[in-house]
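Quick note —
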Amino acid sequence: MALDFDADARRLRLSVDGAVLAEAGLDDAGRRELEEAVTAFVQASGDARRLDREGVLPLRLVGDGATSRFQDRARGYVSLHGAASVEDVDAAVAAPVDSRRFRSNIVVSGAGAWDELGWSGRIRIGDVAFDVQRPIGRCAAIMANPDTGERDARLLRVLTTEFDQAEPTLGILLLPADGGGVVRVGDQVIIER
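Predicted structure written out below.
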């Protein structure tokens, strides 16, 4: 699926293999049209069974097209995972696996593989405090190679079988506390609990 956004007109075009799936503005009617088109596309795909869970449908387009966002959930979560966790997954499959597959906002080094899944309460990254919310249940997007878009690794199955997870999980969701702030590369991570 290709996405083109005309910022001046505030219009979004979704295409699949060159055919336009939907093209609409970001007003209420346009948002509904885009949401319905993406929902129908996914429901017709091999991933349709993944939609049949509490809280998944209806699919919603988040953001206003003007304000920068770094999350795909309406509450403004920040996603974080440990580099060692991804290294663990990479060692379990033949396809190359790096942090880009997981699209986290923050990747931390120095923690042991899967340590972040045990974090709770509050953590601080540099001067910014975050409240830990929950582990991130992963979707089929992680199976696509970030360079080619081809599905080359069955990572959902790898997470559940090789790492004995009930649901495919990697990383955690955080909510900024105390008004948020700026996180910089190299900031220290402190688990305050």
